[in-house]
Amino acid sequence: MSALPVRAPHRTTETEPFWAACAEGRLVLPRCDRCANYIWYPRLYCPSCAATDVSWHEVSGEGTIYSFTVIRKGAGPFAPVGPYVLAYVELAEGPRLLTNIVDCEVDAVTVAMAVRVVFDPAGDSDALFRFAPA
């Protein structure tokens, strides 16, 4: 578990399968049954072709850092922790997720660094996804 703050995610009808899988330590994404594009953020239609035929698929959880920034002075619950890394991670399956990079020094983070998903407990029955060096 990282030192970053966590709180239970806000679940909706569209995001429930995603958060339920995170609580189980799995990363799942909706994928369009028509054009086969993975969809991020979770929703019930495809933003590429507008199809409403989507199904959930477990993904590898492996990716690379596409872009990142180091937050040296956070706000709210992040004020006492820092510095920390906020990054876009490009999954092997294609989508880019906004997340935190954990379990490494902030100065060691680089663009194109290989990372893997990790899950931080959030309350009794939830978890948040973050990424750590692979």
Largest sheet: 5 strands, antiparallel
Enumerate how many helices there are, as a single number.
Answer: 1
Radius of gyration using CA atoms only: 15 Å
Order of H and E elements:
HEEEEEEE
User: What CATH first level of the largest domain would be assigned?
Assistant: Mainly Beta
Count of strand segments: 7
Could you say which overall geometry the principal axes of the C-alpha atoms support?
globular
% residues in beta strands: 35-45%
Unreliable stretches (pLDDT < 50, length at least 5) are none
What is the SS-derived class?
mainly beta
Q: Report mean pLDDT, rounded to a whole number.
A: 94
Indicate how many domains the architecture comprises: 2
Question: Kindly, what is the distance between the CA atoms of the first and last residues, rounded to a whole number of angstroms?
Answer: 16 Å
Q: Main sheet: which strands, in order across?
A: 5-4-3-6-7
What share of the residues lie within helices? under 10%
CATH topology of the largest domain: OB fold (Dihydrolipoamide Acetyltransferase, E2P)
Looking at the overall shape, the CATH architecture of the largest domain is Beta Barrel
Description:
Strands 5-4-3-6-7 form a 5-stranded antiparallel beta sheet. Strands 1-2 form a two-stranded antiparallel ribbon. A hairpin with a 4-residue loop joins strand 4 and strand 5. The two termini are 16 Å apart. The chain has 1 helix and 7 strands, in the order αβββββββ. The protein folds into 2 domains: 10-59, no CATH class; 60-134, OB fold (Dihydrolipoamide Acetyltransferase, E2P), CATH 2.40.50. The chain has 134 residues and is mainly β. The model has no long low-confidence stretch (mean pLDDT 94). It is globular and about 45 Å long. Helix content is 6%, strand content 37%.
